[in-house]
Amino acid sequence: MRHDHDADGEHTSSRRAFIRTTSVGMTAALVATSAAGASLAAPVSPVQEARAAGRPLAVTPACDGHETPAATEGPLFKPQSPERTDFITPAVSGVRLDLSGIVYDTACKPLPGSLIEFWQCDQNGDYDTAGFSLRGHQYTNSRGAFRLRTIIPRDYWGRWGKRAPHIHTQVQAPGGPVLVTQLYFPDDTQAYGRDFAELNASDRLLNRACTITLAGPQGGGYTGAFDFVIQTTAT
Ligand SMILES: [Fe+2]
């Protein structure tokens, strides 16, 4: 069933559920950082991978201290998602995306133990509102790095019109405010036979500053990079 009700314009209080209590959150963060350290062992830079493979890739700009722009949360965030770095299941058959990056503060210091929530629609443009397919949270490792195995989402029609493919994200340093934003894809992305340039140009909510740097396609999928720069204290 296609869900056409992603208004992407409603700011619900559900994001408050994303904020864990300090004591529990810190404990969880420490455990998760340790666990993530194993699963995220030596996350490979997409730039390094592309260079090793002889593939061209625009170099991800170094952290310049400019905070990642916020975007509307939309109505389809679900709290209590599972902790995981891999969204690939038998039901998920879209164009693969191996996304990684670093979470920095505005002084460009990496932020270990930062909580990152991802949620997105599938290869058909559908969000899983009954379960948690293509939804999950994770913590950055000791170097502030994250990695997510997922797919490129498809475009869909919502209350705000045609939405270009995007991944919803919330990022929060331990004890800090929550950044809510959306990540987009370059105009030359090849997936589902769609014209990403046209889709991006038609999306009224799109922010080019939140475009993932992609390498590929190779082996049927893309490698992507996106670094977040977030506040660590409420302003
Ligand atoms: Fe959406």
Strand elements, count: 11
Classify the oligomer.
Answer: single chain
Give the helix/strand class: alpha+beta
Calculate the terminal CA-CA distance, rounded to whole Å. 41 Å
- Shape verdict: globular
Total of DSSP H or I helical runs spanning 4+ residues: 3
Rounded Rg: 17 Å
Q: What hetero molecules are bound to the protein chains? A: fe (ii) ion
The pLDDT mean sits at: 82
Largest sheet properties: 5 strands, mixed
Low-confidence stretches: 1-47, 55-59
Order of helices and strands: HHEEEEEEEEHEEE
Beta-strand content: 25-35%
Key descriptive features of the protein:
3 helices; alpha+beta; 4-stranded antiparallel beta sheet; 5-stranded mixed beta sheet; 235 residues; disordered N terminus; binds fe (ii) ion
Structure description:
The chain is an alpha+beta fold and 235 residues long. The protein contains three helices and eleven strands. It has helices spanning 22-39, 46-52, 196-202; strands spanning 96-105, 115-119, 135-139, 145-151, 156-158, 161-163, 167-172, 178-183, 213-218, 221-225, 228-230. The strands form three sheets. Strands 1, 4, 9, 10 and 11 form a five-stranded mixed beta sheet that branches. Strands 3-2-7-8 form a four-stranded antiparallel beta sheet. The chain has a two-stranded antiparallel sheet with strand order 5-6. The longest helix has 18 residues, at 22-39. The radius of gyration is 17 Å and the shape is globular. The N and C termini lie far apart (41 Å). Mean pLDDT is 82; it is low at 1-47 and 55-59. Fe (ii) ion is lined by residues 6, 8, 74, 163, 166, 168.
